[in-house]
Amino acid sequence: SNRNRTCQVELRDVDTGNKIVERFRTDEALERVFVEDKPFTYLYQEGDNVALMEPNTFEQLEVSKELFGKNAAYLKDEMKVTVQFFDGRALSGSVPPRVTCTVVEAQPNAKGLTATPQ
């Protein structure tokens, strides 16, 4: 029956970073949260942080490299990135879906392998 249908969702607390899994009924109403996507230009990395620049105002922002997760390895100078904000706080960062990388060194049998940001 349609009454018992649920949707399982993984939620992350924006204050603590803790993740929980919740189930909601498909007919249940939830409060909508508005997250703002802002474009930035990657400048450089300093320790565990990265420096970004807002392209219109040239205002600089320093955020944790962890916002980009595994994709932080793909950050390079002048790259256009997106940072998601909620209530004025940076929640996550993303790189373009495709990036061009130069392979400096590889095992002889690694020819033809590719990697893409996730």
CATH level 4 superfamily of the domain at 36-94: Nucleic acid-binding proteins
Helix count, per DSSP? Answer: 0
First CA to last CA: what distance?
Answer: 37 Å
What global shape is seen? extended
- How many β-strand runs? 7
Segments where pLDDT lies below 50 for 5+ residues? Answer: none
What is the level-2 CATH architecture name of the domain at 36-94? Beta Barrel
Task: Describe the protein in words.
One of its GO terms (cellular component) is cytoplasm. Residues 37-91 form the Translation elongation factor P/YeiP central domain. It holds the Pfam family EFP. GO terms for molecular function: translation elongation factor activity. This is Translation elongation factor P/YeiP central domain-containing protein. The protein is an all-beta fold. The protein has a domain at 36-94: OB fold (Dihydrolipoamide Acetyltransferase, E2P), CATH 2.40.50. The chain has no helices and seven strands. The strands form two sheets. Strands 5-4-3-6-7 form a five-stranded antiparallel beta sheet, with no helix packed on it. A two-stranded antiparallel ribbon has the order 1-2. 9% of the residues are buried. The mean pLDDT is 88.
